[in-house]
Amino acid sequence: QVQLVESGGGLVQPGGSLTLSCTASGSIITIYVMNWYRQAPGKERELVAAITGGGSIYYADSVKGRFTVSRDNAKNTVYLQMNSLKPEDTAVYSCNADITGARGRHDYWGQGTQVTVSS
Q1: CA 118 – CA 29 distance, rounded (Å)
Q2: Three-class SS of residue 8?
Q3: Which of 1, 17, 61, 70 lies at 20 to 30 Å from 103 by C-alpha?
Q4: How far is residue 33's CA from residue 35's CA, in Å, rounded to a whole number?
Q5: How many Å apart are CA 70 and CA 72, to the nearest integer?
Q6: For a pLDDT cut of 70, what percent of the chain falls above it?
């Protein structure tokens, strides 16, 4: 069984920084793309950033220049460094990964972590 576990959310003032991490565990053979999504109350889920196994990266326009996604393949972990945070970044952030494990290739989700940007 493959699991994704996020950590690092919390309350931060506008202009502050947070780093989220998401670690995959279980019977993992290959991790392809790893994504960070967010969903604010009353809004649709939004893809924030993505990183492939080869290091190709995507950012949503709303976070370009402020957020940095990276991954440590040896640790099966993806990170999201968030700088210059704004109140509109407040949301539940969830990681998602395309993983081949003992039971085949599937899409997995973490439980989500709350990020609140407020003074």
Answers
A1: 40
A2: coil
A3: 70
A4: 6
A5: 7
A6: 100
* Residue among 37, 72, 38 at smallest CA distance from 53: 72
Contact criterion met (CB below 8 Å) for 63 and 108: no
Q: Determine the pLDDT at residue 66.
A: 98
Nearest CA-CA partner of 111 in 98, 97, 99, 93: 93
Residue 42 predicted with pLDDT over 90: yes
Mean pLDDT of the chain: 97
3-state secondary structure of 41: coil
pLDDT for 10-39, tens place per residue? Answer: 999 999 999 999 999 999 999 999 999 999
The per-residue pLDDT for 6 is 95
